[in-house]
């Protein structure tokens, strides 16, 4: 009896097929003080991050044109995207017509 009580105190988690956290005989993880402290620390960290993100470093007026003040070229996203599109277009072959393709056959026109 004493051995059963001691062995029953330590609950062994064996490999259970299926969803071990659902159903009638599910395994519920215990909430320990360490886990509680981790959750509290996470909440405080998220609150600190939100406080930092709510206060911008520069105003909207300062943000407008700051890349030009730093001497950066093509600061706007539109110019950047247009540049990428143009680079992709240059990788493809140039447009050619059928006349250009068969121009080498026009070197000798005996019938005219």
From TrEMBL:
The keyword Ribosomal protein applies. InterPro entries: Ribosomal_mL63. One of its GO terms (biological process) is mitochondrial translation. Signal peptide: none annotated. One of its GO terms (cellular component) is mitochondrial ribosome. It comes from the Eukaryota. This is Ribosomal protein 63, mitochondrial. GO terms for molecular function: structural constituent of ribosome. Keywords: Ribonucleoprotein, Ribosomal protein.
